[in-house]
C-alpha cells in the first residue's frame, strides 16, 4: 500500500469509528451524518451512504464531489442532506470534517431567544458565537426542514460563517473542525455544554460564562497542541473508540 492509499484507508477507518462513537454517545441517532474532506483531493469528501450511523462499515463509505455527486462506484442511496457538507466545504477551505446531528439538548437553543454560550472550558470553541439557521428564510414557510439541495446548503454555510457551530432551528446543529477527531470531540462537547447551560439556566442567573479572553486563550493553547498530546481531541477519541468498538462487538 502506497502512502496515498494509506492515508485514505486510515481516514476511512476513522470515519467509520466516528459514526460509531457519535451514535454510542447519543449525539447521532438513527439519523445524522459525519464527513471528512478527502486527504488527497480537497475538492472531494467522504461520508457513508444513507444509513443508520451505528451500522456504518468501511464498505459503506462513498466519495463525493463538492456538488454532492458520487465519485466512487456504487448505486446505494446517499443522504439527502449531503449538501450541508458539500456547501460548507466549498465555503470554508479550513474545514476538513463536519458533523450534522439532532443532538437533543442543543435543539431548545435553536427555538428560543437563549443563545448557546460556552459554559465550561471544553466548549471554548463556542466563543466565536453560535448562529441559528432559519430554513424559512431560504425555503419559505412551507418546507420540509431539510437541507436537501445546494441552495439551502449555501444558505446554511453563509449563516455558519467563520463559526465552529451553527444551530438549525427545530432540527439540530452542524459542527465543523480542521480534522475529523476534533469535529467528533466538538460535537460531543456541544451537547454536554448545552446540558450544563440548561442546568445553569434552571438554577437561575446571572450565569458566569467563559469570557472571550479565557476562551481565546484555551483555543490558542489547543491549536498549539499536537494531536498525540494527552490534552487534545485524540485523548477523547481513543477512549470513546474503545467503548464504541466494545459495544458494537457485544451487539453483533
Labels describing this entry:
252 residues, alpha+beta, L-fuculose-1-phosphate Aldolase, 7-stranded mixed beta sheet
Could you characterize what this model shows?
The protein has 252 residues and is α+β, with helices and mostly antiparallel strands. The chain has one domain: 3-Layer(aba) Sandwich (L-fuculose-1-phosphate Aldolase), CATH 3.40.225. 40% of the residues lie in helices and 13% in strands. The protein has seven helices and seven strands; from the N terminus they run αβββαββααββααα. The protein has helices at 3-24, 82-91, 136-139, 150-160, 180-203, 212-223, 233-251; strands at 33-37, 44-48, 61-65, 97-101, 132-133, 165-168, 172-177. Strands 3-2-1-4-7-6-5 form a seven-stranded mixed beta sheet, sandwiched between helices. A hairpin with a 6-residue loop joins strand 1 and strand 2 (44-48). The radius of gyration is 18 Å and the shape is globular. The mean pLDDT is 93.
Low-confidence runs: none
Count of distinct strands: 7
Describe the largest sheet.
7 strands, mixed
Distance, first to last CA: 30 Å
CATH topology: L-fuculose-1-phosphate Aldolase
CATH class: Alpha Beta
Strand content: 5-15%
Number of domains: 1
The CATH superfamily appears as Class II aldolase/adducin N-terminal domain
Q: Total helix count?
A: 7
Examine the secondary-structure arrangement and name the CATH architecture: 3-Layer(aba) Sandwich
Based on helices, strands and strand pairing, what is the structural class? alpha+beta
Q: What is the CA-based Rg, rounded?
A: 18 Å
General shape: globular
Question: Which strand order do you get reading across the main beta sheet?
Answer: 3-2-1-4-7-6-5
- SSE string, helix = H, strand = E? HEEEHEEHHEEHHH
Mean pLDDT score, rounded?
93
Which percent bin holds the helix content?
Answer: 40-55%
